[in-house]
Amino acid sequence: MNTIVIELLVNNHPGVMSHITGLIMRRACNIEGILCGTVGDGNTSRIYLLMKDDWRIPRIVRQLKNLYDVIEVVPRDDCDTAVFDRIPELIGTGVISPV
Amino acid sequence: MKMTGAELITRLLERQGINKIIGIPGSSNLPLYSALAESAISYVLARHEQGAGFIAQGIARSTGRPAVCFTTSGPGATNAITAIADAKLDSVPIIVITGQVATGMMGTDAFQEVDTYGLTIPITKHNFLVRTPDELLKIIPEAFTLAMSGRPGPVVIDIPRDVQTSMVEFDMYPAPGEKNNGMHPDMDRLERIAQKINSSRKPILYIGGGIISSDTCAGLYALSKRNSIPVTSSLMGLGAFPSDNPLFSGMLGMHGARYTNYILDEADLLVALGVRFDDRATGKAMEFAPNASVIHIDIDQAEIDKIRETDLNLIGDLRHSIKELVHLVEENRREDWMGYIASMKKEFPYPEPQSDSLFHPVNLLRAIHSRADKKSIVTTDVGQHQMWTAQYYPFNHPRTLLTSGGLGTMGFGLPTAIGAAIANPDRRIICISGDGSFLMNIQELATLKDLEPDLTVFIMNNNSLGLVRQQQELFFGKKYVSSLFGSNPDFAGIAEKFGIRGINLELENDPMRAIERSLGETGPCVVNVPVSLDDNVFPMVPPGSANREMIG
Known about the structure:
The complex is a heterodimer of chains A (99) and B (552). By secondary structure, chain A is of the alpha+beta class. Chain A has helices at 16-25, 56-65, 87-91, and strands at residues 3-11, 31-39, 44-52, 70-76. In chain A, strands 2-3-1-4 form a four-stranded antiparallel sheet, with helices on one face. Chain A starts with a strand and ends in an 8-residue tail after the last helix. Chain B folds into three domains: 2-169, Rossmann fold (3-Layer(aba) Sandwich); 187-347, 3-Layer(aba) Sandwich (Rossmann fold); 361-530, Rossmann fold.
């Protein structure tokens, strides 16, 4: 699978994640992985979305730019996406076993 | 200063210049309504929140300025959703303030609780959930700025009941939200666009609602005239360019004139201004204007290259861009191209009605137009009557046709007409409707009676969902499933029972005189006009086909 990471800088406040994931979900796209955390004084957050790279990505990026709480969007194909496979390990081994 | 959240909301709305609120009270917005009693703002009580949303739209669409409506939580908010979604698709600046259950109750499935914030995410330009009353100082002005700036659109502000009742203390009022000035255009790109126009042989303009919302009609006229570029329009662009001008080349798309769609096939340069290449306009997008390079100017960057890859584009305010572009294009008379346009118009016009009966929709529309004051504003519902109006009623001024283009909402016509009447008390408002559509917000006849504006409704009554029936006839083997009404009310009689003048045109000895009276006498009037079930809207491009494949 050809993947791409969409990096976003957003206002850190309730509902922002819902706006972003909703926009993507409504275009029948799946998000393969999400990493998110606050930056600096906590007023903003950085979000990394791991997605399948296809023709819809440029359109989604343009539409994400229109969201009020999105400050910046950069699609990146230069990322090491291995981190998305290691989230439980990085957090401390997951307690929920895969089915 | 110290006041309740509800008082602060009304003060901030007053400071935005709002003088009328449309809405319906309920338990979650009663504090807000109570504050209205102490305010200079007057209210209009609608009879359904969808009606309230469309009345607000009527104000906003006819003036270009944001309008506000109030609903309560739960069903109040869900009822308004159709009107909000409609405003999103047609880029109409309305601000919907919904009451919400108290913050402590949220998430408990409280009485009349619904996740208004979550429900309205995909149908608003932006939405806010106010958590504390001091946030109102920022959110209310910001909502106005957002609704008006860039590509306009609806904003929802969800305000829990306790935020309305608790006290807030502050030093000074925030500045009212204003429209952000549009960006100045990239001159280098504009010069390249001008070169492309200058070197083209058969350029054509494809214009839409963006011309009207950016107030670019004068600039468009100058551009079209100077370089002799014919103008084709989407449904939303009608009125932006005088329809009787030789440069006007009609409405394109599914129910556009044959000549318009043929001319677009012939063009070598498509200059798309304030449009979004909607499928009803372009038909099969790959085969739209197949021989043309595409220039697209729009304020919304997300519209560029969305449907059709552009050769050259410019993101920015059309008013500034076109003003500059006019000086960059050469004067050109394009005699060959103009001659071709004129001959196509003559050869492939809209079909003429087979009969001269006043009860044929086309003749009826011409009769209405001939008797209506030229400053009148026309609203439509959705269906055959809407397309006939777009085809045959000449619109020569912006904001004189208010119609649901993107969402195609039946029930739009009456409440939107009421809103237009509120904002334009000196003008006659004409609502062209169908029997199917009119029933969908018929309760607003009560609001109409409350206000008694000069508003005339014409119902083209064919006892069916006409455009559905037409599609079943053409594309579904004449299987008329669920499109013919088993019964229909006496619309003139219903109007009378609401206290409004009702006319049954078929019972009039002099129907033409009755139309004249309905448009001339003060106050509202509902005119029922029986029309034949067999009259179809032509031409018609089958859904999914290229625009050249027109039926009829």
